[in-house]
Batch of 4 targets.
Target 1
Amino acid sequence: MACVEVPTFALQVLAKSRPDWRAATEPVVVIDEDRPQGFVLEANAAARAGGVLPGQRYADALGLVRGLRAGVIPPEVLGAHLSHVLGRLRAFSPEIEPSSDEPGVFWLDASGLGGLYESLGRWARDVIKALGDEGFFALVAIGFSRFGSYAAVKSLLVPDARGGPVRSERGGRWSFVLTTPEAERALAQEVPLGHLALSAGARERLARLGVKTLGELMALPEGGVMKRYGPEALALHRLAASLGQTRHTHLLAPLPGSELRPEAEVLPILRRKILDFLEYDAHRLLFGIKSLLDELIPELAQRQALIGELRLELGAEARGTEGLTFHLHRFRPAAATLDSALLLDLVRLRLEGIDLQRGIGEVRLEAIPTPADPEQMRLFKLGPHQDGEAAARALTRVQAELGDAAVGRMALRDAHLPRARQAFLPLWSSTDTRKKRSLPPPAPTRSNAPPPLIRRLLVRAEPLPPRPRDLRNDGTSPAAGRRPALGEWQPRDPAQGPIVAVHGPFTVAGGWWLEGPEVHRDYHLVETKRGDILWIFHDRRRRRWLEEGRVE
Amino acid sequence: MGLHLSLHTVLGGASHSVTKLEGERRFELGRLAGRFVELSGWAASAGLSVAMQLVHAAQLEGRNTVWVSTATSHPFYAPDAARGGVDLAALPVVMAGDAQQAGRAVSHLLRSGAFALLVLDLVPEAERTGGEVDLPLPLQSRIAGLAQKHGTALVVLTAKPPESASLGSLVSLHVHAQRVRRVARERDAETKPRLRLVGRGGQAGDEDKALPSGEVGFEVVLSVEKDKRQGPGWNQVEVFRGPTGIG
């Protein structure tokens, strides 16, 4: 694992952009905004010597140093230079992870390069030289873990009088190759806290107790660090404590949990289409562009990238020559996207204003990708109405208004009585402490059979009117007294008409093994003259007919 | 240059533009998106079963569905729904105390845009109050607008006789679902399962779907009482399996 640092990256970018400033000798600072209330972000050695420190107000810094030069580096400029450095580093390793917290810090996988470089030291020197050719001063440390190599590269800087890092050579070298994890740990202990990305407040609190190096921080008990200096110092303490805990024999084998998280290289994707005939119709042309875009989007999604810019080149027939003249049109959506509808809408608007009288013979479509984070990709992969997290948020709002018990799901249960075979359960269990709740994606079962009619249970079983005596029954049948006389028995609602058909019984008996009363029910499905299908049962113990539900 | 392109046509492809009117006259989930649909039933009602069939169809497409009921318990018999293939774990059920609470819940759920289908079951409330449930027009306006905005099929179950007026002028489609007759399974010479009408003559609606052995089917007619897009007066016949035990 190698760590490459371009120290005071913004300051170096400023120096590159203002070559007329003698940044090596004149006091120069990078500020966040060009007004007196702006903050100093980085200061060079001359400014530090005058008492200017990062975190001060620009007005205060001006009061401390006469002739202080200051500049603002907008984020997009900083990002462009970072991308440039990243591109340059790709010549030395395919797997590179830029630091998201500290611009100018990169981790590279330096393994497997033995066939190309005679030694790791040579590799490191070549990296420094390559960045030097681009106008950047860089330091390289090769160690066994992310944090170990990071600490090692910080040890290549020496502190100035105020504890801040200043570029300097350590033993005449700008690179460091660690040979054992123990050496990595020992070196990390010497690193001044001022060189690490620790907030000024935390650094000051530690300095008050004389804790100025990483080794001194590691000597403190973990619980006390959290209590006295907060989570920032604790995170640093834990990272430092993890160094050298595992013995490794291979120099470049990463420590557990310290694997590289490389950033994928995103290259533009180009698709072209040569038209059989010159196209004069914008509508048909838009269809052609759509087919190219439909090819680009799945490939970008596979690369975990979004379209930051779409370049459309339309080759029109040139006057007086046989070739085509290409005109470039750029489309930049407000935010990087994979939404083809949005991109095509932008293209459509442009096509409406283009004169196609000369005819288009070739279309080239190039997507300039930008890396996407997993959340963005998740949303683009989801179709409409498939966002379980959005559904869960809406259901939580309903729960907040109607009460927790109002939202749930029906579930099946093993039970004898039909009414007990279902239950209304909470949608999420009370022990569910996930950060993000989500409705599970549905997993229905397919069937070639027609769908079933669904029954609805009454809130409680309602008694039916008394059953008329079956005059045809001679009283010897076991079902005597239970079978209704068809055409005479009225259901609860007289509007339904008399019961004209009975299906059943389906007997359910149980509970005899419990201390409570035994249950014995004969369930029937009955049809009324009006067409209703009722679900009724005869309760032997209570000697009553009750309506359980109906088919709807 | 006064060129006006229809992006919808481009995105939708040519197949949409050549769809015949007859094809539009189908009561299926894809044609209910963004519409305020009233599904009524009376006597031999099949509204609940038809709504559950829509839930199953939405789930087969991997889309979220939600059921809002005004009942204090038992919105539908869960074993029957599971028998139809519905994934109960992915079907959240909201039990509102009354129609007004249900309306507010529906607003919250529709506003999220996360659901392809929302079923609002007003039948238990009608039974509890002993009359037809009236959804206030402002509420109807709000939920119809939200359904249209997010492309959600909003299906409201009601209990009313056929040819009754719909819930209101904002209802886009009013369908009355009624069981009309029984169909039974028979085998032809090639042992291919077919459906045979038990009642009056005619053809069963869907012969491709075979009734399992020993089960009885019911023909359900979906009568379109009101359709703001295609016009009323068309019917659709579906076949459903009867509950276990009916012979």
Target 2
Amino acid sequence: MSRGYSGIDVDRISVDDVRRGDLTLEDIRIHPETLEHQAQVAEEHGNPQLASNFRRAAELTRFKDDEIMQLYEALRPHRSTVEELQTIADDLESRDAPLNAALFAQAASVYQRRGLARK
Amino acid sequence: MTINENEKRVIGRFRFMNEQAVNLDGFATPAPELGLIAFDSPHDPLPSIVIRDGVVVEMDGRGEDAFDALDEFIARHGIDIGIAEEAMAIDSLQFARQLVDPYESRESLVRLASGMTPAKLAEVLARLTAAELVIAMTKMRARKTPSNQAHVTNRSDDPLLLAADAATAAAFGFREIETTVPVLADAPSNAVAVSVGAAVGSPGVLVQCSVEEAMELALGMRGLVSYAETVSLYGTEQIFIEGDDTPWSKAFLTSAYASRGIKMRVTSGGGAEALMGGAERCSMFYLEARCVALARAMGAQGVQNGGIDSAAVAGSVPGGVRSLMAENLMVMLRNLESCTGNDALMSESHVRRTSRTHPIFIAGSDFICSGFGSIQRYDNMFGPSQWNAEDIDDFLAMQRDWGVDGGLKTAREDDVEGLRSRATEAVSAVYGWLGLGDFTASWAQQAVDAAGSKDIADADLMLPVNASATIMDTNVTMLDVIAALAENGFDVEAQRCLDMLKARVQGDYLQTSAIFDEDMNVLSLVTDPNDYAGPGTGYKPSIARQAEIDTIRQQVSVDDLRVQQRQYRTFELRVIGTAETSHDPRDVVIGVSPATGRDIWQTLSGLLVCDVLEELMAGLEEEGCVGRIIRINDSIDLGKIGLAAAQLSGSGIGIGLQGKGTALIHRHDLAPLANLELYSVAPTLTARLYRLMGINAGRHAKSMTPEPMRNPYSDEAIEARYHTKVVALVAIERECSSNSASEMLEMVK
């Protein structure tokens, strides 16, 4: 279970590899399958919500850092219209991120009801 | 100012009481309308749940149409529907009793709690007394091994001092280090400096840099920090939104951290909403129950709560301190990591702040403090903590007193000096290699020695800003830092930093309550579950760990004291014959104890025994008497020594002196425990007082009635300071005592 996001075997990475500049942050990022494994462990230890979090995270491993920052910003109060939130939800669905899509879709409906969307 | 000064002059007793530190604290009359109430506001909802077609349609008295954003998120994500009806039907008092019953397993209780609403858990936990909270916390915390977190910050964001202090914090045993900035732009530099310093101190120390949410995540993504904590939750919708987030954005943020393999916990705390004027007339504890439910609903693995920045608000109302601990217990009951506050200083009074922490300290928690200020109060950029560098020795002594593992260990001075040197060298090398800045040798020397930033005159305050800009502009990541360490010969530290990066690929430290031990093993709910089930179960320190707790650097042995005494052997008490009874009416015998002039040379007040004897002799001489020094070998009891001296004395008056300095005047015809005059508190005695004793003994010898000597007054904890020495000195006296006859002595300097 020590495969980096790039597929590299992390156990074999040495300080010398780092010193030679052979690695990028992609090599030492967590792999979605590892997060799925951790989700199962969390379920076995009485925390299905932690498991759901790991599964949303597994979807997000495919997203670039700045995309993630933008998605977070979009969910903050009064940043996005209801339609924009729904569009993001659709986009996430089409990019094989259904759990995050559901989070955005639910936010769209609650933000509308509670006045938390941008007008 | 005195409290009643406009009305009348306050009597001295109350003027004096008003001046005590505790009266600098604010105490509030409970005001539920303002949220200034710990438990059970009349406006708190009663627990309820209605589930229709597998959906929560009513929770805590509110129908789904009226759910605010917090209710909605909790209802949709935070309640285990399959358990809710069973759990909500349990009588709250019954469930409270199960929490303190050692035969009720933690697993069964967390299962039921996952079906309980915020109001239900608030109702349950409000019923536990302080003592019951201790027992329940002992059982309910997730990780078996307790731990502790340090703050490492300073006023100037000095990278060398940050690194030196991070290494020091690691040496004292802290397994998480939290830094922050007085100047936001300095954050990247602080993250690098603390991460490098922590790696110098120990493998596996987690590091965070508490700043604005987006910046904190960005630092994490670059690998410059290894966990996050400052993801704040609030218990009312209004305050939550004013915090510029919603439960959905925070839930997304939680997943964003996990997507990069970074541990995170959220932060909340009773009193925050009242402080911000948005408590919606609810009690602090009920609002915190909503925060904790949200934390679980979002999928965060843990919570930092227990007041935190608003701890003093909770502390201002009746039961408020108890509610802070109950908040922590609620987190544990929700099966989450609990970082148990004891963070922002909640009282000016040492007594109150200790009282606030102590029950949690003895119960044990995942992190006793969510920020023990390992630096001095003035350098803590979060504001002073409950516990600070000023208190590290106190905390270590408390661990030793109670045999409790509070996560800290004694660090040796020379080890810490070595670590601080290496930390400053490592940071200098990294900053130089990456073009972040250059440090002068005098700056580095000052940082190694400094007790705080005030001791560093040569720091360049612009360096952290410039270094941070370069880190951001040239996209420096932890990989660059590791390369710089390796290129400059810091191979061990490079490996430790790389191991922290590898850990986030493995992901085991994302599980609840995870820390690393010094061998990089993950200790968590999964790998190190708390199995407390009554006496003899649960966490027990290993033999090695117990020795760390028990062995503080200040402890001394009898042998240490014997060596110390030998340094004062600057005179001799030479035996010149056996003791004989005198018939000279001017004769006064000074009887000394068996170890005097053999193994004991200095009294507890720091006077040499020879100087004491000279003062006594001079006092006798002033009264026209002659002193003889005789060692009484067959007793260490001062009364018997004095009486034996009096019985050998021609005047019938004797002085008894123990090596440690306690002295009395005795008369030949009194019972051993009766005496004429006594100096009982040896540590406070002066040469002048011994002279006075000699004079008074002379006057007694002449059958006069002198004005009695007065023991000097002191409000110091004399017994605390000297009793360990007394025990050792008495043991030495005992070793020297024998049946041999009393001896005439002559002093030779």
Target 3
Amino acid sequence: MKNFFIILITKILYIILKIAGKNGGNFLGKLAYDWNSNIFHYFKIDCPIIAVTATNGKTMTNNAIGYVFKTADKKVISNIEGNNMETGILSTLLKSCSLTGKIKADYCVFEVDEGYIPIIFKDLKLDTLVILNFFRDQLDRNGEVESLILKINEFLKNYTGNLILNADDPNVARLGMANSENNNVYYFSVDQYDYATKDIKEAGEGKFCPFCNTRIEYEYYQYSHIGKFKCPNCGYGDNEIYKFATNVDLKNRCFNIDDITYQIRFNSIYNIYNFVAVITCASLYNIDKEIVRQALSEFVLNNGRLEELEINNIPTIINLAKNPTGANVSLRILNEDDSEKELLFVLNDNIADGFDVSWIWDINFDTLNNVTRIITSGTRAYDIAIRIKTSGFSPKKIEPYLDLSDAVKNLYKTDTKKYVIANYTSLQPTRKEILNFNQ
Amino acid sequence: MKELKILYLYPDILELYGDFGNIQVLRYRLEQRGIKAIIDSYSIGDIAPDFTKYDLVFAGGGADQEQGILSQDLLKHKDNIKKAIDDGVFFLLICGAYQLFGKYYKGVEGNIIPGLEIFDYYTEAIEDRKKRCIGNIVIEANLNGNPTKIIGFENHGGQTYGVSSPFGNVLFGNGNQFGALDEGFFLNNVIATYLHGPLLSKNPELTDFIIKYCLDRKYDENITLEDLDDTFENQCREQLLYRFLNVS
């Protein structure tokens, strides 16, 4: 009865929020969760639940899976705004359920914060879990990566649903061994791309084999510690691949899987991995390949994740980077583009960003390709300016501004192509400031 | 051309909190002054280095899990390290490396990771894993008689006791233990500290203090270092000291 009232009240509040033109974020979920933390139990969900977790790429992949399924005329419930903790998932369910807690949909697709998988799916039956990668991320808030992986490993020991894993991340692939009884483990991988390297180029995790502590050997690195690896001692890393992307062509934004060419709207290696995960997932639910191909050729995300804009006719690319790998991937895209460009890097150290900004020293700023000026901003504008200067980029071409609107104003003093990298809390304010500048 | 030889210990293992930045800052400030920086690294599996042949030895912080593997390897070099310190080679040790140069590190389960026992201090983990000293930190250190504010970031569960000569007094943040008055360890040619950030990135005076020490020792002189353009560093310090200490 109590749960019925919780749902009733949150539904009324949701109507009020809607009238006020607000979305509510985590608010409804938080309210319900504080009232009854066991409320997940109450929902009647008959459709498969698919969850996506990772350090980077959750929102992109979650939204792309949802988009593919919707293109196939399926009814999908999803936390597309990226509220990915227990209260966020709960908000999404509360908005979509009937008063008796019934969810009417063909699929629930959720992005879930890495730390919340065991909490949320204690009471909700998970059909498919997609795990993309694990990188160092806000160490002062999240702790070391290893403890996070161990928590998920513990959860997977009793899990028998589909498990879609990135075979090229040693920290992810190891989770396929968490439960030897689970026959539903599917690995995906991407063939060596043009900018892959023999040595690691950016900070990475998982240097030692999780099973025998031997140093892991790589045939090549795609980016960070993602690549073709194997433990020379126990052979870990030699997994059977279910979906393998080949002929990766970032210039033309396409790749092949099973003789089909997928055209996409993004030009980064890490997005290829996201989309191969999407294709793997769609394949498990027998979504028509042609529909998947078409959906991925249309899919874009207009929220500052590799968003391409024209500001006063100046091409501008905005990307979120909340950890070294995110920033390194953005710089990869910048360096793979030979045209002249300017960079704006916005760095905040608010609670949600983590107070520790030392991660910027794990960003590889060496040999920036044809960057003629760098503007820095955010509450840590000077820290990032020092970082870039120390990498050898001339300080005369670096301009720090604590004030974001000053930074944007000065960025658009020239009509050179712009790349914008912003961390978590700075992304939307930066995006807004830039969009406002468009006349 | 003058040169400094730097030995970077376990760069692939003690590399969690951007401590590699310290090496980059050292190299930058040396090269800007026309001094060559020779940077060698040593990690598990490499041929043993002769620590006494270097001017500066650096080691950073790493993941808790890897600390044990490391201690076993480090202990193999104990006598050579001790000799290098006695000879006057400068040692800059951050976080995990700071702990490993003391008597021991006692983990949450009571397990003891033996240290090099070169110094008397020892470190014990706090029982509650979630409790760590995390945050921005400002200390005041005495560098050749000049009181200098040092800005960094600390993130450590270990509480270090028995420090006879600390690196500095805590003005903001925790230090050697929760709410401690002192931070780190500083004796002649050894600075050991919890400060990440990376430490040298926002503290050019400290960096130059170390560089001057190494050059004076190597070339038997009393060098005056050429000034560098520290505009960003000074702006950064001014902004952060105001934020943390309310002083300008």
Target 4
Amino acid sequence: MISKHDIQKLAALSRIKLTSEEEASVAGDMENILGYVQQIQDVSAQHTGTHVRDTNAPHNVLRADEEPHQSGAYTEALLAATPARHGNYVKVKKIL
Amino acid sequence: MKHDLAHMTIATARELLDRGDVSAVELADAYCARIAEKNPTLNAYLEVYDDVREQAKAADTMLAAGTRHALTGIPISIKDNILIQGKIASAASQMLATYRASYDATVIDRLKKQGAVFLGRTNMDEFAMGGSTENSAFGPTKNPHDLSRVPGGSSGGAAASVAADLAVAALGSDTGGSIRQPASFCGVVGLKPTHGAVSRYGLMAMASSLDQIGPLAKTVADTEILFNAIAGRDSKDATSIDRPRPPTHDKKLVVGVPRDFLEKGVDPDVLENFENSLAALKQSGVEIRDINLPNLKYSLAVYYVIMPAEVSSNLARFDGVRYGAHVDAPTMLEEYLATRRAGFGAESRRRIMLGTYVLSTGYYDAYYGKATMVRELLKDDFNTVFATGVDCILTPTSPTPAFTIGEKSTDPLAMYLADIFTVSANLVALPAISVPSGFANRAGARVPLGIQFTAPYAREDLLFTIGKLFEKANRA
């Protein structure tokens, strides 16, 4: 069972504000969905092998730590998308 | 000059352009005129770009200079979650309603180099979450075959744009069926490539281990052309792969059918059409074999644990600080809460919370851990079947034809069940294609149906071969 308290906690963790009607409807939807996905508990087999990836699938691909792009090359394009800026800083509310 | 857009494919348009029978500008104008006429009803496009003519002129310049790539001058539509620098990419969400992309997605970069013409951005379920486009913040798209029905989703606008001749072809994205299911609902071809076959750089992340960009088109041959143009390793996506050269295939094609999976919950018209499709394949020399994928029945449950888990992580970036919507509030925390409240629609909120739940302490092992284990078992199932000499696995694409607008929008679980045949390919990273297979009669309308072939890892070539064979057999 998913209680109203659980939903409020999940909403807080998800950083989403819900009205109390929405809390009730989300609780109902989640009950249904979790009831459905519960069937994976019926699988008794264990996957014994390691998580085998297809041999041609890439694995732990890393880029050499070299040739950085020119400093500031993308600063303006990225800052232009921010809702609020202060010079070359992203502007946010005081945190502490 | 009047153009026959109903029969326009990438292949025919290519001939017309190369012969000089039509210019890229004329072709783009013809599509823009048709969009202006049809889109107010269909809502397939959220925006038609204001520089279509300039793009087409540039393509004409390329053609005049003798540069002819497969897509030079070909007008296509782009799903609203793929970035084109300087253009709005909203993912059909209020969160990004006015967001302009800072860079080009790799697929866009590759198509630009070929001189493709981007007509506009197509409607979708918000952040690609849904199977009907009803989750769009900007109203649903309508199915061109029956306006009372959904076009499928999440790439519903993309499928409708091709079906209604509002684009020659389209780019969509597929996380659990979002290319194939709308393709089947709208009577077009849709390909979900192997995970990694196409770079995801510049595609808004929904569930990264499942997401792929892919083509929608009128024919299998067109789908192949567009796939070839966008596929291949990209240094900006560490999961992308080089395309292996496929082995030559000269033996009889073998198609496996997981019979026991088709017993429950499939519409009788869909089943009948599926049997007819099997008969047509047999007629053209394909061997049909019954197969068993023991864990296939768990795939939807596995998907609805893994997908929301990844969604809850990926959508954490929409916080009103770096881009997109921002709601002012007294504190930082309240700004997060209010921004995400205002920006996300109901389905996005639901999946974020579901993902947060399955990943939380106390539930992680029972849900996410278990689902990840069953996912590996499912991979083994597919590998075992392919190891017996089966080339492709065949199912219907969707258990029902397109449903009516509003029919499932209040019951999320009923909507999820529409993904039952498509999610497995994403879970096991395999390529799958939906090909039109006929029609069902619904209240006087002819509603399209589709069948889905799934191939071994990186074997898109098999999907194209058998898809073309089926197109021919089904036409006969």
